[in-house]
Here is the input.
Amino acid sequence: MDEVAKRFRLAIRKYNMYRAPEAEARIATRKGNTFYVVFDGTYCETCGLYDWIDDLKYVLEETGLRAEIVKLHEPEGPTGSRRIAAFRVVEGESQHKY
Here is the structure.
């Protein structure tokens, strides 16, 4: 497993540690520098549904990765809870480290 994948998996673990069960993320697949992440949960919609997805970008920065959301697939209908976001890791390390 390469360093980018290790850091991405670490970020997913950190994300889930603080956000599950309201929102839980898992890597579905990877194509090059793009990771497809499935988000599922009850979410706190008053907090802003997309904030749950954006939060992973900040957790990735904590692990030294810079990423951008390049695609978002949402369920059809009001009852779906699963979303799939594509995060592309961009060159250069994040300057945001704790």
Q: What stands out?
A: The radius of gyration is 13 Å.
